[in-house]
Design goal:
Elements (H helix, E strand, L loop, with lengths): L2 H8 L3 H4 L3 H10 L7 E5 L7 H6 L3 E6 L2 H13 L5 E5 L13 E7 L8 H11 E12 L6 H12 L16 H10 L7 E12 L3 H11 L1 H12 L3 H15 L8 E13 L1
Parallel strand pairs: 1-2, 1-4, 2-3, 4-5
Antiparallel strand pairs: 5-7, 6-7
Helix pairs in contact: 1-10, 7-10, 7-11, 9-10, 9-11, 10-11
This protein binds S-adenosylmethionine.
Length: about 270
């Protein structure tokens, strides 16, 4: 089994994505989506940005490596009556089922960054984007003090070291790496731009309940929690995460969670 696929099929990312709907919708609105625009959402999960893009009138294909999330995305599109939004399985490192230059906008929000072989990922995104089109990525930033960078950092300290040659997904949050990858895919460096933006996770439940969702349903944290439990350190991991989530919780409502996280927005004019 492909370990990248196994990681994301292991849990149920829909239980995290429930906290991402508002910011996902707001982000799709910032992408200037117009009626009939052909959009690929890569590493789309259950459609956090794909469904809002389709609601704005785009013709959306969501591609994700996890079959459970593809099924969840198709079910959500059906339940929202969106015939212009469909999901299929695929690997961002090799989009063999997709034709050259077939999308006006290729977006990937915290998605393609998790695929192995980042140079192949950049090449594939450029290949399937129409000349004159655009790529938009949202990538977490290594060592950023906000939620997800810290969650992944803490999780990695409890997880066995990755295999030799593994390239950290967080390298997609470093501008020089992003430039190197898209330049290797044939894009001029001046066509790549960056901005730091905020994505807020909202849950009508406590920070501790949110941590429990991550240890129960989010592949990377599940793996860290499994490894920590084997070492008798499961409680340490949970208390470190609870401290992090409580510290970053900005909700004024007792028993609710609202946590902003900074990400690197990458825009590539193809
Ligand atoms: C953090 S989730 C983000 C999902 C979605 N974009 C969202 O914002 O809700 C990462 C997603 O990337 C997908 N993914 C990881 N590796 C992938 C790959 N090689 N090709 C396609 N999707 C991948 C996972 O299955 C998962 O759905």
């Amino acid at each position: 089994m492909n370990p990248n696929k196994a990681l994301w099929e292991k849990g149920d990312f829909t239980r995290i994505a429930e906290s991402m709907r508002e910011s996902g919708g707001a982000l799709a609105k910032r992408f200037g989506i117009t009626q009939g625009l052909k959009v690929l959402d890569l590493g789309c999960g259950d459609g956090t940005t794909a469904l809002p893009a389709a609601k704005l009138g785009a013709d959306v294909l969501g591609v994700d490596i996890a079959s459970n999330l593809v099924a969840a995305g198709n079910a959500r599109a059906r339940s929202h009556g969106l015939a212009n939004c469909r999901f299929q399985e695929g690997d961002a490192s090799n989009l063999q089922d997709l034709h050259d230059q077939s999308f006006d906008l290729v977006m990937s929000i915290f998605g393609a960054m998790f695929a192995p072989k980042p140079f192949d990922v950049a090449k594939e995104m450029v290949r399937v984007a129409r000349r004159g089109g655009r790529i938009e990525m949202g990538n977490w930033i290594p060592n950023d003090p906000t939620l997800i960078a810290q969650l992944l950092k803490i999780s990695s300290t409890y997880t066995p070291p990755p295999p030799e040659g593994f390239v950290s997904p967080m390298t997609w949050g470093v501008e020089s790496n992003v430039i190197e990858r898209f330049v290797a895919a044939g894009v001029a460096a001046e066509r790549i731009s960056f901005a730091r933006e905020t994505f807020t996770f909202n849950l009508a439940d406590s920070p501790s309940a949110f941590v429990e969702r991550f240890t129960t349903y989010y592949g990377p944290t599940m793996n860290a929690f499994d490894a920590a439990q084997k070492d008798g350190r499961g409680d340490d991991l949970v208390s470190e995460l609870e401290e992090l989530f409580n510290e970053h919780n900005a909700s004024a409502i007792k028993g609710a969670t609202s946590i902003p996280a900074t990400f690197l927005r990458v825009t590539v004019r193809v």
